[in-house]
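Morning F.,

Quick status update on the modeling queue. The single chain you submitted on Monday has been processed. Sequence for confirmation:
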Amino acid sequence: MRILYVCSDLGIPVLGNRGGSVHVRSLVNAFRRAGHSVVLASPLLTKSSWERPARLEVPVLHLAPSALTDSASRSVDAFAATLGVTSPLPDELRRILYNRDLAEALRGRFRDAPPDIIYERCAIYGTAGAVAAEALGVPLLLEVNAPLLLEDRIYRRGEGANELAAAAERWTITRASAVFVVSAAVRAYVVSLGVAEERVHSVPNGIDAQAFRPGPRAPAVRARWDLDGEPVVGFVGGYQPWHGIDALPALLERLLPRHPDVRLVVVGDGRGRREFERQIESRGLAAHVRVTGAVPHEDVPALIREFDVAVAPYPPPTHDFYFSPLKLFEYMGCAAAIAAPRLGQIEEVLHHGETGLLYSPSDPAAFADACDRLLSDRALARRLGVAAAAEVRDKYTWDRNAARITQIAEPLIAKRAVAP
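Structure tokens below.
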């Protein structure tokens, strides 16, 4: 099968270390391992010139915004600056115009040799895949990872939904031959936009089972991060508010009287890192904390294997918990002992007392008690970790996801082939 994977999101560097970047590459690699021919089209490869690009063994089309698009966006930005105001309009305009650029580029490049399907990661104003699929006469398979406009409003802009963005979202979603969602909450959201339930398929996140697997601890990793046999509570992820990283200083304060040598290892980077480090310093916890910053994704499994307890401290949200936490599956793959809140898909994937410990997301004391129990009872921690690794390998891998997606795609391709 020839698959054109389209990621039009201007904020996802497909060769970078963000969660979305990992998701894109992981599925692309799974398609390739299954023997499919894949081309990835994206406007952004890495976040900065200093970032080491990840390896990806498929052709990558770096289709950046046109000079006209960049010029129009800069002109609006300059106009807003002249008025002394900040406005989301330059960014909105850039996204809109880029989708025109991308659709034209895809039509031109694949007119003479179209793919069998276009697989697109849904993005705000992301219409390029639908336009190109219609022009090339191939099915569009759309992946929806979140209710994007809700997420943008709550966690970023704090404004009302943009009517044009909402219209673009509905236009694209309702034109897809099949829609793949990462959780039950996202499925309900997609159906609410008018997509028939039989066209919506739930495919949670997963792991590359060859990379995220149980294994011995590495002395070099301990030496690199100045760990000398102390018990480690670990977190992998960004500093976005929904990850709940603000709960970690208080967790450490609760654990230290019971485990005075405990270390907190935070793997990841983001705009909130400096504030987190400031909190750690102000509370006198710096000696017990290691912040790695961004690390290549291939280095993450070795770090997780150093965790005595792996945490995913999501706070109770003001909306349905629509996330499919990548960290949860990666912790499980490495046989980490996990403490996580009873929220959404977490409670569906992780079974309390069998593959991890669950606690009420609104109870910091219960969070600390779960971590304390795992630190104190190493036999329990090992048993839960081994069971979690078996569970994730059996049910949640990128290879399984790729197989399911292509199985759903096959009749759509055949149907399109015989259509007039």
